[in-house]
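ok so i was messing around last nite and threw this chain in just to see what happens. nothing serious, just curious
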Amino acid sequence: MRDHPTRSTWRFAALPALLTALGLSACGGGDTDVAVTAPDATPVAVTAVTRLSVGEAMFNDKSLSASGQQACASCHATPAAHADPAGTLLPLGGAAMDRQGTRSSPSLLYLAANAAFRFTADGTPRGGFTWDGRADTRQHQASGPLLDASEMANASTAEVAAKVRSTALYTDFARLYGLPAAATDQQVFDALTLALATYQAEDPDYLLFNSKFDQVLDGKATLSAQEARGLQIFNAPERGNCASCHTSQVGADGSRPLFTNFRYAALGVPRNTAITANADAAFFDMGLCGPKRTDLASRLDLCGQFKVPTLRNVAVTAPYFHNAKVATLDEAVRFYATRDIDPGRWYPVVDGRPDLFDDLPVALRGNVVQTAPFGLAPGAAPRLSAQDVADLSAFLRTLTDDFTAPAGSATVAR
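result:
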């Protein structure tokens, strides 16, 4: 937990007591416990337990998993902008903590403006939570890991409810979330997922808007020459073309850019052979058309498309892409710059030729996006030089929030 002496002090004073009552400490990710401290040395009166503080305690509570070793925070670590903890490929889960999933854990930040999955008027998929948008709300999304065999691995909602009832906070939890005296297992489960969603919706950390880029928008800082070049490349349709998916302009109402349009794209990311499931040559994770999502299985035109994530805090959310294939930010930017002009760098060579887009069945590889910076022939002059890649990476690092500072405004002063 971080120190925030200038905001939400009451919550950070109360949380250590809550976690102590639960017999746990705030989890920073993986299996490492991080001691919780008060925001400063001055004694602060512990205020009443709130819906937000209970939700945060539940988010950090490992006892809610079948193994007793995994919390929501284990895969959504604070220092990594609530994405996978640094130094992990795909965190192990399951009842024995020996099950590997197939997808990285995306950041949970900057999702307040996200909405339920839908098709826009022109048929473009948009919205939804998780990499394939199958959850319509934060509450719906929160239910998935609790029951997923590769994550918290509870066998049923009844098993989850029993764990919640056994926590020291249950009385306060039940009161704050309106549970009746004889609450059913489903009511307890639903209240838990609501508490987890409430924490994410109300904690200022999830919408900090205090990065260097935000300070530049506010006239309080200036981009370096390299960062300014990177922003120019980011916005240029014929070069980086990044802003076509990762919106970078201030809204007409002054709203700050979220660096995502909440849509989907098939990038043709190489197959990650470190994922256990990929040892089966017949297995393909195809995003919108399955296998985790099932209602769009017949929409073969959507196969390979995954949610466009926010680029806010991207510098601290490695590894990159839905399958955690790329380890560093610089290398992720190089993928965009060289995927098509130097495919041998990214894909296995089969019979003397790179096996392009090898994480999709051959018949579906035509779904992969070819707009700039992609769409060039092997050996063609690059749209982005090595210097351009470095400049883009420098700009992207200006999007990192300061997790020790107060939250900024969601709008830019006019």
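not much to say yet. Residues 161 and 185 are 5 Å apart (CA to CA).
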